[in-house]
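User: Sequence recovery, please. Input:
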C-alpha cells in the first residue's frame, strides 16, 4: 500500500513536470521576457545613438503570445509572437514599422530592426 502511494506520487510529479514544461512552449511571450543587453544603432527625435555594448532593452509579456519592447532611444512597440522550433518569430506584421524581429531561445538572443521614417532602431543582444 505504501509502495503504491510512493509510485503514484512519483508519476504525478513527473506528469506535472512534463505539463509545466510544455506549457512554456505554448507561451512564447513569457519565454522571451527579460532584459537584453547588446549593441544598438538608431536615431530618435533627431538624436543619433550608437552603442557597441551595454545597451539595454526590456521585453515584457503583454499576454501569452504578445510582447512589449522598450528602450530609451526608440519608440516602444508591441509584437505578436509564436514559437517556431527554437525561435520565437512575429506572427503577423501588425506593426508596419517593424522590419525584422527574432528571438533565438537556445542562445537567449534578440534581434530587431524598427524603421519609422527618420526614427530607426537596430538592436542585437542577449539576456
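Assistant: Recovered sequence (127 residues):
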Amino acid at each position: 500500500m505504501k509502495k503504491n502511494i510512493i509510485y503514484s506520487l512519483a508519476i504525478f510529479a513527473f506528469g506535472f513536470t512534463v505539463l509545466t514544461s510544455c506549457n512554456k512552449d505554448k507561451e512564447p511571450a513569457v519565454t522571451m521576457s527579460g532584459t537584453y543587453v547588446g549593441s544598438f544603432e538608431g536615431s530618435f527625435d533627431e538624436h543619433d545613438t550608437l552603442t557597441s555594448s551595454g545597451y539595454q532593452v526590456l521585453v515584457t509579456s503583454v499576454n501569452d503570445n504578445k510582447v512589449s519592447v522598450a528602450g530609451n532611444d526608440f519608440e516602444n512597440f508591441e509584437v505578436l509572437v509564436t514559437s517556431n522550433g527554437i525561435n520565437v518569430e512575429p506572427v503577423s506584421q501588425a506593426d508596419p514599422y517593424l522590419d525584422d524581429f527574432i528571438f533565438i531561445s537556445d542562445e537567449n538572443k534578440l534581434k530587431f530592426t524598427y524603421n519609422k521614417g527618420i526614427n530607426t532602431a537596430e538592436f542585437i543582444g542577449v539576456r
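The beta strands are 34-44, 47-63, 66-70, 77-84, 87-90, 98-104, 109-116, 119-126.
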